[in-house]
Amino acid sequence: MEESKIEQLYTWLDEAAEKMGEELDLSYLELLPLAGRILFDQEIPEEYSETIRNYLSDKLTSISLEDYKREEVRKGIQLAILKGMKGSTQQQHMITPDSVAIFMGYILEKVMDTKKTIRIFDPVAGTGNLLTAVVNQIDKDVEAYGSDVDQTLLQLALMNANLQHTEIEFFHQDSLRSFLLEPVDYVIADLPVGYYPDDVQASEFELKAESGHSYSHHLLMEQSLNYMNEGGYGLFLIPNFLFEGDQSAQLHAFLQKHVHVVGVLQLPDSMFKNEQFGKSIFIVQKKGESTEAPKEALIAKLPSFSNPNSMNEMVEKINNWFLEYTSSK
């Protein structure tokens, strides 16, 4: 059976990274961007040994990215990154599942206005998989921005964007510090859950904890609104327990003050090993002079993505809800 293009690209990146690892004392995830850079530039750094250079030179003749669609490139890269992340215990070293990324792109299209060019930002871009998966679904000109504090992940994100020929401006920084970024129309984020260790920086936010460390996922939602136009939308992947716990009352008050809650779509239980790790897509609109809350928020529990009949029924209900929502604006 002939390899698919996705498998071919994965194999190319995997074999190139493994070969380079024979001489470079770097992790697999650090080697992948180096392999991706060689594929993108079609050039091999002179400092590599003759053995590596000859090997990579031969490999460059075996693949042409011009034959690939963006989604094929993204999925091939994703397979290689998943190999490198296998067994990782670091929460930030996780990839948003494809089915969720595609569904978030579908929801984003539902709330888009008629602008020819839109601006979108992911403040926790990671490897860039969610951001590029969503951008690939948008049939408009897109100005895309991403940020992450983890240099390895950001190098992978840059590789992801370059090999897909998708223009994204990345910031390597703590996303809870100030950005040189004009307000955007949409923010998407797979929010990392946990405490933010910098209490001094956290004190700049409304959602700072009254005592002890603040929740990073709360602060990141506030920061997203700080860089969002009035009337803009945020799509956040949140833990199902977000509105419970010791700082939930403060979060409720903040959201009531600053946003219209458009919807909460709970992801299928089957996606998670334990229901306590369950997540939902939280859809909000930043309040402005001309914005209005929906008559009734879109609240639903999604069926399994592998059940096409149930999912088609749910999509029809969501389509009808958004039809009414957008027509009443």
UniProtKB/TrEMBL annotation:
Ranges where the DNA methylase adenine-specific domain occurs: 94-290
Domain of life where this protein originates: Bacteria
Q: Which InterPro entries match?
A: DNA_methylase_A-5, DNA_Protect_Modify, S-AdoMet-dep_Ade-MeTrfase_prd, SAM-dependent_MTases_sf, YtxK-like_N
Q: Which residues belong to any copy of the YtxK-like N-terminal helical domain?
A: 7-85
CDD domains from the xrefs?
AdoMet_MTases
Record-level Gene Ontology MF annotations:
DNA binding; N-methyltransferase activity
Instruction: Write the protein's name.
Output: Uncharacterized protein
Native organism:
Pontibacillus yanchengensis Y32
